[in-house]
Amino acid sequence: MAYEDLLKSVEESAHEKELELRDKAASSAEEIRQRAKKQAEMVRRARIDEAAKSVTTERNKLLYLTRAENKELLIGTREAAFENAFRDAEARLAGLRSDPEYPAVFERLVREAIGAIGEDAFEVHIDPQDEELCRNLLTSLGVTAEIRASLKTAGGAVVSLPDKSIVISNTVESRLQRARERKRIEIHSILSGD
Q1: Farthest-apart Cα atoms in the chain, separation
Q2: 3-state class of 95 per DSSP?
Q3: Percent of the chain with pLDDT over 70
Q4: 128 CB-near residues (< 8 Å, 6+ apart)
Q5: Cβ contacts of residue 89 below 8 Å, gap of 6+?
Q6: pTM listed for this prediction
Q7: In what order do the strands lie in the sheet with 167-171?
Q8: Averaged pLDDT score across all residues of the chain
Q9: pLDDT score at 193
Q10: Whose C-alpha in 6, 15, 105, 114 is 20 to 30 A from the C-alpha of 81?
């Protein structure tokens, strides 16, 4: 019986060892599963974070591009409106000579140009249509100047020294051009926030 008891004891001991090994294996397997689960969660979060960063970057890029396109479109639209306004002004000013107020406008333009020249001897360049008006104006002002009907203009005059060292352009077109440049600078300043 001692042999049988010994066998039984060995079997029980082996069975206990087996159970102990199985418990250890199950515990190790559970640990491995938990670690794998944690690692999988970390990988999943990293990928989600990476995807979120990628989406944010792409969204910001698209917003930037859209804003740039909108700004370009706005500038283009404003530039077109600006150009249309000046084309309309040019068209209206083309008929200035037929306006009953034209002689007063012509006088103001010539007086400004003469005042800016600051010399006694000068030439007044005008459109041939304004020759009589200019002669009458210079006579009424008591000014002696050489009149040259050599311009094609909607109105006004160019006053210069005979040697052309000083030239003052005060025509409708030159005034409109100066106004265009001044307004373009103002509009650019407004658009750029300066």
Answers
A1: 157
A2: coil
A3: 95
A4: 149
A5: 176
A6: 0.59
A7: 146-148, 123-125, 156-160, 167-171
A8: 85
A9: 61
A10: 105
